[in-house]
Amino acid sequence: MKTLGNILWFVLGGALMGLGWWFAGILALITIVGIPWAKACFVIGQFAFFPFGKEVVSRKMLTGKDDIGTGTLGLLGNVVWFVFVGIWLAIGHVMSALACFITIIGIPFGIQHLKLAIIALAPIGMTVVAKD
């Protein structure tokens, strides 16, 4: 079922938002200082292409210890991210969610877009894991 969900998701908007994440990652890479944000963009972008069967969790919850992305520097990085890129990706996901909510079949996709909108606001310190 998750394979069918991922295929429908990809065709009905997931590809566009995944490319949005990757575009933000490429822009971050160009600046050199944006490499940590670029890594997060590519990881979350891959998730945005095929989200069903996976989830995003805090690395601190996963490993049980702090790292550079889950501490004070991660918080600062998320603030910078929010101001320059995060708000725009979140708006894109909310607009996509509203479009999905028009049909009954699109409701699960709209919910997934809203989850991605929340992640778009602060992706530093997060990682994608399989839902098992």
Automatic annotation (TrEMBL):
Which Pfam families would you find in this protein's record? YccF (PF03733)
Q: Where in the cell is it found?
A: Cell inner membrane
For the keyword NAD, the answer is: no
Residues annotated as coiled-coil are: none
Keyword terms: Cell inner membrane, Cell membrane, Membrane, Transmembrane, Transmembrane helix
Instruction: Give a yes or no for keyword Protein biosynthesis in this entry.
Output: no
User: What domain of life does the UniProt record list for this protein's source?
Assistant: Bacteria
- Major subcellular location class: membrane
Domain Inner membrane component residue range list: 4-54, 76-125
Q: What does the record say about its membrane topology?
A: Multi-pass membrane protein
Q: Which GO cellular component term is one of those annotated? A: plasma membrane
Q: Where are the transmembrane segments?
A: 7-30, 36-53, 74-107, 113-130
Q: What is this protein called?
A: Inner membrane protein YccF
